[in-house]
Each structure stands twice: as structure tokens, then as C-alpha cells.
Amino acid sequence: MIDLLIRQALVVPVVGPVRPACDVAIDGGVIVALGSELPFAARRVIDGRERIVIPGLINAHTHLALTVCRGISHGELSALYDVMWAVEQHITAEDVADLALLGALECLRGGTTCVNDHYFFAEQVARSMATLGIRALVGHTVMASGGPWVGDGELAEALAFVTRWRGRDPLVTPTLAPHAADTTTGPWLQALYAAAEQHDALFHIHVAQTDREVAAIAARSGLSPVAYLAELGVLGPRTLAVHCTRIDDADLALLLASGCVPVYCPTVHGLRGRVLRAAELRERGARVALGTDCAAGNDDYDMLEELRQAIAGQRIIRRSASLIQPAEALAWATRDNAQALGLAGQVGVIAPGMRADLVVLRSDTPRMTPCLDPVNTLVMCAGEREVEHVIVDGRILIDAGVVTSVDERAVVRRGRAAAERVIERALRAGASLPGLARS
Prior knowledge:
By secondary structure, the chain is of the alpha/beta class. Helix content is 38%, strand content 23%. It is built from 14 helices and 17 strands.
């Protein structure tokens, strides 16, 4: 008797052809078989007729607790320097626990089964991820100066966090997460990279994301942010270089030569008017990852939406109407992101022996009808309303639209209360947040 059997679904393995009327057998958190009319008895059977099964989507860059700034970062102010930082200096560990759980639940509802988070109070973020049951990579944001939480204590906590969480939970993997080159010193970056090598962890950093960063690094070193990181010896295959929107051809060549993983956040890049040359990097062999960034700039964590934005954004900057087909975009957010995050061979494709991180989507809704080409239709049309079941490591976390691991209403209530507390503190301290005023 196996744990779970999905019967007669249209399965998109990502690697290999689409398989109509296919069964998926899951036991012990692992996909044990795919095939037509598998001869298994199961403790739970899901009827897969008029359903599409895909690998769980993977979000390669998030700041989940920044749900606190959803919807307020548009306008003339800098979303990062004037809004996020003004708010974040008033956030507490308790607030982060509630806000990160809210953000992760949003991810899960949209079919994302794995997140890569970069934020302060990583201990609380990690605990919230474990509570929800989502797969997560988590790093404690480190800043030496300039931001809301800075100093030696942040460096010490980042190093201690990796030690505490290494092997602690099978679904939570710690990373090293310096904020950026301009907000972290060279010696700190080298110390964090050395710790990443020691623990075989990812080194997750924002790179060339603002003109201010570029100017600061030029004043410090005479180099671009990409060249500066390369000179320090911290730009390598374990480096996730997020954004890279302010780079020239020389920087692009360094990214390629280093083997690092540039991370493309299509909606944020489009809204800020500067887009990573992601398709070009991929064509030239780079392992480019795909993420949403945060709700302070996106303003959501919807990876299905991000697939469409990725296709449109790259076609615009390359002036090509045929660049990146829907099937390629789906593989990017599953198989390719798994490889970029060190999860290849575990998740990202549907095959026997892989961990059972799966999403079951309805194909019988108005938005999905007619479903003449299932992969194209799914990528270009599907949204949260089509997500029916979400499975992580064999555990059903969303069952027929119902969240099973947490009380959804309580998560929303606590998240809203946390956001209200933080915004009220910021306003009391004199933060200028257009459209908001103390009540």
C-alpha cells in the first residue's frame, strides 16, 4: 500500500514528452512510478481527469517578510532606499515570523513548492517555513552599513544560523546572504564566502541592482560591482548574483566565466525599467535562475505570472517575437531553478526517484478552456484559481484548494496585524510613506 496515487492525469514531466492519462505513484515522499493504470493500492487517491500535474515551481529569490510593504513602493521614491529601509528598521523578530509565513503561504497557493529567501531574522523565517512545510533555502541578510539592520552582530548571526540549521530540517537549507557589495565590506564578503565553501552552501547576494550601488563600488574600488566581487574571489559557481541589471559587456563576460548563477526577477526588472540580459546569458551557457523578488516591488509571489513576464520581458529587450517558448519557461522555473539552487536530482522534474514536490492544476476552468496545447495553455493562462493540490515531499499541503498544514485565516490575520504594527511604528518615527498617514 503506497501513500498517494494520482490517477489518469496529464503529466508534464519537464524532461521527456507530456504523458496523457498517466498515473503518478508516491510513497515515503518519493515518486515511485509513472505509467498507465499502475497496479497500486493507495491510502489516498486523487482523480487526475481534467487535471495537469507539473513539478512544483521554484522561486529562486524572495524576501517573504517584505509583504509588509506590498503596494506602497510605487511612485517617485526609491522602493529600496526610501520605502523598504524606512519600514524595515521598525520590524521585529515576531513580525518577521508572521509576515514570512504569510508570504510563503501565498507562494504555496500559487503552486510554488520551494523558495530561496534572503532576509533579516532568518531564524524566524526558517521556523515559519518548517511550520508551513514548504521546501526552503534561507539566509540571514548581512549588512555592514547603510541599511536598517547593520553591524558585527548581523555577521555573527549569519554564520551561527548556518551552523544551527545545517541538517536540522530536511526541507530547510541554510545559505549565506550578504546584502550587496556596497553595504558589506570586502573582508566580510570573503568571510561569508569562505563559510559558504565550508558548509557547501549557496552565497546569495544582490549585484548591480541600483545606480547608487554602482557609484559606491566605483568610488571604493574603481570597479563595477561584478568586477569587484570577482576580484574579491566571491563570484563563483555557488554564487547567486541577483538582478545584474546594470552591467556592460565586460561584466557579462565575467558572469559567464565565473560560473555563477545570475537571477532574473522579470516583474521587478520591468517595473524599474532595467532588465537582466537573461536570454542572452542562457544562450551563452549561464545557469540563469528565475525569481519574483519581494512583494515590496513586485507586488506578489506568483511564479506562474513571472513565467509570462519573463517571456514578454526578454522578447521586448531582444526585439524577438519567438524568444523563449512557454515550455522553456516552465522548465526554467522547475528543472533549471532546481539545478541553480543545488537541488538537481531531488526536485524540478517528474520521474521515479525524485522527491514528490508536485502541483495538480485544473484544466476545466473557463480560463483554461479550450486546452488544445496543455503546456502552452498552462504557462500562458493558469493562475492561483487553477491550483487544486500542492504536494511537498509527498505531503499534501493544499488539498482541493484547502490549506492543510496551517490555519489560513489565522496566518492572514496575524500577517495583517504584523504589517499594521510595523507601518505604525515607521510612521510614528517620521517615515514618509506616500498615501499612508498615522491614524
